[in-house]
TrEMBL record:
Keyword set, alphabetical order: Antibiotic resistance, Membrane, Transmembrane, Transmembrane helix
Membrane topology of the entry: Multi-pass membrane protein
GO terms (BP aspect): response to antibiotic
Annotated localization: Membrane
This protein's name: ABC transporter
UniProt-listed InterPro entries: ABC-2_transporter (IPR052902), ABC2_TM (IPR013525), ABC2_TM_bact-type (IPR047817), ABC_2_transport (IPR000412)
Stretches that traverse the bilayer: 33-52, 72-95, 124-145, 157-178, 185-206, 249-271
A Pfam family hit: ABC2_membrane_3
UniProt keyword Aminoacyl-tRNA synthetase, yes or no: no
Domain annotation ABC transmembrane type-2: ranges: 31-270
Organism the protein comes from: Sinomonas humi
Lineage top rank: taxon: Bacteria
GO MF entry, a single one: ABC-type transporter activity
Cellular component per GO, a single term: ATP-binding cassette (ABC) transporter complex
């Protein structure tokens, strides 16, 4: 990834300006808005409608810890939203910009790669915050999900959200180098993201998955984002359903930082304004 001239302030200001441009472009793309912005809300509604007739989800007879179906799936949908906005959207988007010549044109301008990255990251943060706020509002107002009242819970939500968002965005930039063309980007990226959602406790109860699948999911960041979100929105007793019988927030932070570094290093090594095989 080549370096461009300019002071830190100019790079930052260009990154902020790029964030505005990227965000406007995102909301002008109906397919991106549907499949990455509105999709978690749609899935939450489907799960709530399909399974609410069975009653609340609890820990078994005699336990006072129970939660509605919508309340149970809310953490997973928040985690999925982070993954979709960061990994899926950026990987497909940047691969498309490589294919249609956008990156080649940007390479001929004074725009720094760092400013370009900041614009992408800023867009993911803006859309992610809006998505999470809308998802929480829908869950609370439409499905009656009670939201946490303790500031400590919202503090946990904040750092899991920020760390998960940065990690997902960097991994999305890194993954954009994998598709050989813009046409194959969706076919390459979407199955990866979909499989991760199924094995990471987003669509299926994590405790019901076989041990080998839980171990596999534990290697990837989505499982840890979802687990961190469950620690915020589910009753504390539900931690017994986690792989180690605890929320493991320390490990949530460690694994997300590890994947953040992996995404940063791969992005640094592979990003080019022009494909080397072009």
């Amino acid at each position: 990834m080549g370096q461009r001239g300019g002071t830190g302030m100019s790079i930052l200001s260009h990154g902020v300006a790029r964030t505005g441009y990227e965000t406007k472009g995102y909301f002008r793309s109906p397919d991106s808005v549907f499949f990455t912005f509105l999709f978690p809300m749609l899935m939450l509604g489907i799960f709530a409608a399909a399974f609410s007739s069975r009653g609340d989800i609890g820990l078994g007879p005699g336990s006072s810890d129970h939660v509605s179906v919508a309340g149970y799936y809310l953490p997973g949908m928040l985690a999925a939203g982070i993954l979709l906005s960061g990994v899926q959207n950026l990987a497909v988007d940047i691969a498309g910009e490589k294919g249609d010549g956008t990156l080649k044109r940007l390479g001929g301008t004074p725009l720094s790669p760092i400013s370009y990255f900041l614009g992408k990251l800023g867009r993911v943060f803006v859309t992610g915050i809006l998505q999470a706020a809308l998802l929480l509002a829908v869950a609370n107002l439409a499905f009656g999900v009670s939201l946490p009242r303790a500031w400590s819970a919202w503090g946990t939500f904040a750092w899991v959200f920020v760390l998960g968002t940065v990690t997902s965005a960097l991994l999305g930039i890194a993954l954009s180098a994998l598709p050989r063309s813009s046409r194959s980007a969706t076919a390459v990226v979407v199955p990866i993201v979909l499989v991760l959602q199924f094995i990471s406790g987003v669509y299926l109860q994590f405790s019901m998955l076989p041990a080998w699948m839980q171990n596999l999911a534990s290697v990837f960041p989505l499982k840890w984002i979802a687990q961190g979100m469950r620690s915020v929105f589910l009753p504390d007793g539900f931690k017994v359903l986690e792989q180690n019988g605890t929320w493991d927030l320390g490990w949530v932070a460690v694994w997300l930082v590890v994947w953040l570094v992996v995404g940063l290093v791969i992005s640094r090594l592979t990003f080019r304004w022009i494909r080397q095989d072009a």
